Structures are given as C-alpha cells and as structure tokens.
Amino acid sequence: MAIKDLSLSAKMTIDGFMNGINKSTVKGPGLEFSQYRSYQPGDDLRSLDWKMFARSDRYYIRESEVETNIAVRILIDSSASMNHSDGDFTKIDYARYLGASLAYLANLQGDAIGLYVLKNSGIFSMVAKQDYQHLARLFYQLEQINPEGKFTKPIHYKELFTGTQKRELLIFVTDLYQSDDDIINLLDTLNTLRHEIVVFHVLSRNEIDLDFKGYSTFEDLETGETIQIDQEKARVNYKTKLAVYLEETRVKMLDRRIFYRTICTDEPLDQALRDFLKQRSKLRI
C-alpha cells in the first residue's frame, strides 16, 4: 500500500502539473527549436510555420533538434534532522513526495532515474535506468527511508565514484543541517564529477517563523542537546540571523554554480517541478 500510495500521489501531482503548465513551454519529448529553412517538396506540411508565412508570404519549415535523454539521480538527505515536523508532516515526508514526483516526471520525459540515500552509515545507491519497474523500485526505496544519526561522512563518498562516468543531473533534497561543512564538502565532491546539481533546501514553516505553539525547550535531533528559548523575545533576532544564513548559503551555491532554491513544506511542488524542467533543458549528454 505504501508503494501504491506514493506512486499514486506522484502521478496525481504530475498530471495536475502538466495540465496546468503553459503548453508552449513544454514541447513534448525533448523537442527544442533550432532553425527555419525553406519548404521543399515532400516536407511534412505539419511542420510549416504559418506565422512566418503571414509575415513573409513564403513557406518555411520550423526545424527542431531532439534532446538526448539524460540520467537523473535523486539524492535524499536521511539524517535525523529530516524528522523535524510541522504538525503531523515531516521534512522527510516532503522529501519523499518531491523525490517521487521528480522521478515520475523524469521517467515521463524518457530519462533514466537513479537514487542516492545519504545515511549516517553510508550511501544507498540505485543505478539510473529508464523503465517503469525500476521506477516502482525507486518508490519502494523512498518509502523505506528512516532518518537517523548525522549526515554522511566523507569516508563514504567513494560510492559516488563507482557508478556511470556520464554526466548526470543531480537533484539534492536536504535541510542543509550540517556540522563541519559536511554537505558543502559533498557538493564539492559532486562538482569534481562535473554533474549538474540542483539543491532544494527544505524548511518547515514553524522553523522559518520560530512558531512552535508555546514550546520553550528545543532538542537537536542529531545530537540530543537541548536549549531553553523564549520564542517571543528571540523571534526578531532569529529571523534576522536566518535571513543572513540563507543569503550566505545562496552565495556559496552560486560560487559553485549550483542551482539553489529554498522550499517550505507547506508549499505545493509546482515550482520545484518547473525548476527541474528548466535545469534539465540545460544538460546534454
């Protein structure tokens, strides 16, 4: 049932997204405008550009080039901080739905789909393949994620070098909770492999607004340390520091040529899906 639910959720999300998206921005399976050329006898009349005919009174064929299908790898942070909740909904819940929807959309586009789950004990890896059974297995692995411990240590990064040597589009879903720049070090490692990288920084509304409905004691999910906070007194200073942190993070990503977007767990997935299509169009293999 878990697999079926996640699969159904992804399908419903993508179907709704594709129905609502501007048809002119999605040409189908990888078609991108290349150039015009004069009509020649025998050309398919469906390729005639009637707007060009209206302007020039001459027949032109609109030629397109086909994108090569790419390999897309979903990376999920499964450290304990991803268990942070806002109500009954956790960051890892959001990461699952986002990862499943991106995988479903990529499969729909004809791309090979793979998975990395970044665990305290190492990295779980699924090779990138393009078939529905593989997609079903990916959904299953997303359902099995149980966040615990701290972020994956560099000693485990060797797993990243054992796969295909082709350039991939890596979609990293994380809350960027780290010590000693562990996640930045990972991104630097991935950059050495010349992959295209997209980072979705997942935040919950209660941590953005520092609104935890009267709680005064807070626990670090990865270290177990606790701290007492008066939310009302701390809120203004907290929001200022959070804004500085997010801007510094944005600059770090920009310096590494990584596409970066913050995304809140109460936001719909549409913008993340648009960002995926935008970055996908930049990658050629």
TrEMBL record:
Residues 35-242 form the DUF58 domain. It comes from the Bacteria. This is DUF58 domain-containing protein. Gene3D superfamilies: von Willebrand factor, type A domain (3.40.50.410). PANTHER family: BLL2464 PROTEIN (PTHR33608), DUF58 DOMAIN-CONTAINING PROTEIN (PTHR33608:SF7). Pfam families: DUF58. InterPro entries: DUF58 (IPR002881), vWFA_dom_sf (IPR036465).
